[in-house]
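User: I want to check something. If I give you two sequences, will you return the structure for each one separately, not as a complex?

Assistant: Yes, each is folded on its own. Here is the first sequence with its structure:
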Amino acid sequence: MNILVIGGAGYIGSHMVQRLLDTGYRVVILDNLSSGHIDALAGGEFVHGDLANRALLDAVFSTHRFDCVFHFACHSLVGDSIRDPALYYSNNLSSTINLLQAMSRHKARHLVLASSAAIFGESCAMFIDERHPIQPTNPYGRSIWMIEQMLADFDGAYGIKSTALRYFNVAGVHPSGKLGERHTPETHLIPRLLQAVTGRLSRIEIYGRDYGTPDGTPVRDYIHVMDICEANLLAMRRLLSGGKTGAYNIGSSQGASVLEVVAAVERITGKRLTIHQGVRRLGDPSRVVANAELARTDLAWRCRYSLNTIIEDAWRWEKGEQEMLDYYTAARV
């Protein structure tokens, strides 16, 4: 089968490309490399381009008949979305409309979307299931929720079947160590903490200690990127076997506060960290933890990796990155 992965050179996308290649699928990757890395791709056909380019989309869909499309190309930083909502509505909404229209024109009928728990906003339950009220607190969450509603409309009007996987906090790296998390700048908590351990990051801040949680720091549900890839694979197979358009929460159903993650990183690395107090970020809810029972029931998906494994895999990657940096620094000297 032929698979198109939009944003396939990015963090989650590159792991998904590797998973698809390992499974034997033929993969085409479309990425504008604004945040992706061409060297993260172990194979497949690469197309350098953007969803804003309608002519390019038509060329890609004319050249290949895709059995399924994976969409990982939405911008996803809460703070950035508050500072520049126009960018988020343009990239996330307008570009996704371009993609869906191209799929409709070329009769591509299956899409898996990288959605987000950001659509829920402040949790009104200990565990968030798919029936939880949808009240996004920032433009990123609102843009993703609008896309989910568009998907339902495109199914009704054009017959495009889709699955939106609502990721909670994706973390970790490929267990082999050949793929990792390489954001510039890095904004995710676990890699930032590990970069502080190796000295690649000079300062770590906690953004607020006044959340409605036991230790005052936000509680999040950390899910391994390889568990995310497995959910995507199962969602695709469900669509290809006649599954209906729908949405699923993908999380570990285990909450950990920022301070609990800090303690886990210190325990696994054997290093103490100096943590500075920062200002609470706008749009950050206090607790976001998944009820993923529907994905377990409908997709036969299971979370396999714990928070400790997430940190251990990421620590192995970070040590490799630091060794490489030390090597090239010594070579220049």
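And separately, the second sequence with its own structure:
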Amino acid sequence: MYDEENIILMSKLAAYEAGTGASDLSKSQYFRKDYVYKQNMWTRFLTLLGSLIICLLRVLHITTIDGKDLFAVFKSGESIKMLIFIVIVQVFYTAVGMRINRNEYEKSRKRLERYYSFINELDRRRKDL
């Protein structure tokens, strides 16, 4: 027969597994560095894509509204400004993404440690019966 404390532990385990447990277990398959790198690759790709779209819109604005031709845009140094913009955006979002993903991974590890401690306690209690 289970006592009340075992039922409380089992309900905490079930609540965790139903909530963030699946996500945390999938993150635990990676080392922190690998998880952050993998998640940050998507951040870099999407920020590069967004930056290129912004630069393309800028070139379209200069060629249509200002009436300059495409070669004049690149001769005027606008392409250097666009390249600097892309680099700055990449560096900024990479740093922010690394911090966010690292914190997310650490929180996940702490939740998993608590989960495994509950499992060990429940196992210990089961052996005492």
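Because they were folded independently, the notes below concern the second chain alone. The chain has a mean pLDDT of 89. Residues 52 and 64 are 18 Å apart (CA to CA).
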